[in-house]
Amino acid sequence: MTEQPPTAAADRPVVGSYPTYAGAQRAVDFLSDSKYPVEHTAIIGSDLRMVETVLGRLTRGRATLAGAGSGAWFGLLIGLLLSLFAAGSHHVLVLIASGLLYGAAFGAVFGFAGHSLSGGHRDFASRSQIVAARYDVVADAEVAEEAKNLLIKLGWRED
What we know:
By secondary structure, this protein is of the alpha+beta class.
């Protein structure tokens, strides 16, 4: 296996390390407010992991409602697109309303059928996100010392 050359961001010295992405953003924002050339910085997340938060049980009723909701949005979009070619204002409202209703109905049917055919596998709703254990702010070597000094001042202000 060949080793890839390090990227430009990995060659830069770390000027600040934060436990949250918000902290790293705050540091770069402070650098920007201090007229530091932030185009020479990057935020690098380390020790990445995927976190899936379970939101609740997915029943046939919830799957049907979710399908109806997404179908209604799609039907509304189709109704709006078709209304561009409608002759009168009355026809516009009919196209939009019928698109919304048909979309909701078909979405509900497909949501119910999809959940029923899954055989009980993955019958919960969840949200996934990638998080890092640490976020490092790095800067180009020629301006890294200035960034470190500014971030020390930020630390003094927050203490």
